[in-house]
């Protein structure tokens, strides 16, 4: 499932805005198609034109109800609606706001989901740095300074890839519990250069810069000493 609401405020119409020569929505569709491990690939959108474009590049069009097309609708809401209409064992949400994902990362993510029978799998980025929470050290002691590579990592959830077991998600939602972090939860670390989440214009510039650097064949150069 690729969520693609047309309306967005911080980056207007970001799902149909071109990045690196193609619209943003095309990145997750092509990634999922190249992977070749999904029983179905659906773009979840309220917009007819966007849905038809998704069909033209090889995905299905899951028409989202208008009441789930506002900026107040959550992934809990539209995922539940999707799962009630689509049979599957797991739904994997591939987010178009993460255009830097590589196929190997998606393959490794799916292997991770299948290996341990998780109910929920969240993608995350692991940081080895001194972290504070509400002014207090989270993963280090103020009494000593150690090298950052020796610190216990702090994992930040990145909504690039997410997997939910259909049965568990529906059961929790219908009972009133939160299914987004439901059941047995696993964290899957993705490379930091694939973790950009397009929320702001600054994020967009960063992602464009990384894509451009990947396309260039750069030879390493060093200062002559």
Please give a structural write-up.
It is globular, with a radius of gyration of 19 Å. It has helices at 26-35, 48-56, 75-85, 103-116, 166-175, 201-215; strands spanning 2-3, 18-19, 22-23, 42-45, 60-63, 90-94, 120-127, 132-133, 136-137, 154-165, 185-189. The protein has a single domain (2-214), classed as Spore Coat Polysaccharide Biosynthesis Protein SpsA, Chain A (Alpha-Beta Complex), CATH 3.90.550. The strands form four sheets. The chain has a four-stranded mixed β-sheet. A three-stranded parallel β-sheet has the order 1-4-5, with helices on both faces. The protein is α/β, with parallel strands linked by helices and 225 residues long. The relative contact order is 0.17. It is 31% helix and 21% strand.
Write the layout of secondary structure elements.
Elements: E1 2-3, E2 18-19, E3 22-23, H1 26-35, E4 42-45, H2 48-56, E5 60-63, H3 75-85, E6 90-94, H4 103-116, E7 120-127, E8 132-133, E9 136-137, E10 154-165, H5 166-175, E11 185-189, H6 201-215
Q: Count the DSSP helices.
A: 6
CATH architecture: Alpha-Beta Complex
Q: What gross morphology would you assign?
A: globular
Give the percentage of residues in beta strands: 15-25%
Query: Based on helices, strands and strand pairing, what is the structural class?
Result: alpha/beta
What's a concise summary of this model?
By secondary structure, the protein is an alpha/beta fold.
Q: Which features characterize this protein?
A:
225 residues, alpha/beta, Spore Coat Polysaccharide Biosynthesis Protein SpsA, Chain A, 4-stranded mixed beta sheet, 3-stranded parallel beta sheet, 31% helix, globular
């Amino acid at each position: 499932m690729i969520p693609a609401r047309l309306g967005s405020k911080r980056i207007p119409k970001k799902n149909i805005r071109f990045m690196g020569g193609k619209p943003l929505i095309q990145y997750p569709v092509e990634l999922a198609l190249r992977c070749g491990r999904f029983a179905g690939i659906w773009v979840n959108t309220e917009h007819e034109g966007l849905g038809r474009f998704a069909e033209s590049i090889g995905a299905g069009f899951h028409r989202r109800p208008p009441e789930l097309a506002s900026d107040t609708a959550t992934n809990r809401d539209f995922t539940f609606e999707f799962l009630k209409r689509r049979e599957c064992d797991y739904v994997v949400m591939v987010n178009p706001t993460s255009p830097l994902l590589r196929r190997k990362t998606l393959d490794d993510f799916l292997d991770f989901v299948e290996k341990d029978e998780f109910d929920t799998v969240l993608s995350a980025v692991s940081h080895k740095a001194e972290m504070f929470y509400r002014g207090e050290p989270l993963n280090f002691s103020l009494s000593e300074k150690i090298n950052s590579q020796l610190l216990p990592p702090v994992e930040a959830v990145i909504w690039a890839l997410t997997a939910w077991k259909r049965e568990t998600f529906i059961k929790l939602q219908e009972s009133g519990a939160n299914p987004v972090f439901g059941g047995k939860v696993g964290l899957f670390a993705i490379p930091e250069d694939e973790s950009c989440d397009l929320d702001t214009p600054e994020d967009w510039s960063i992602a464009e810069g990384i894509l451009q650097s990947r396309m260039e064949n750069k030879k390493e150069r060093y200062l002559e000493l």
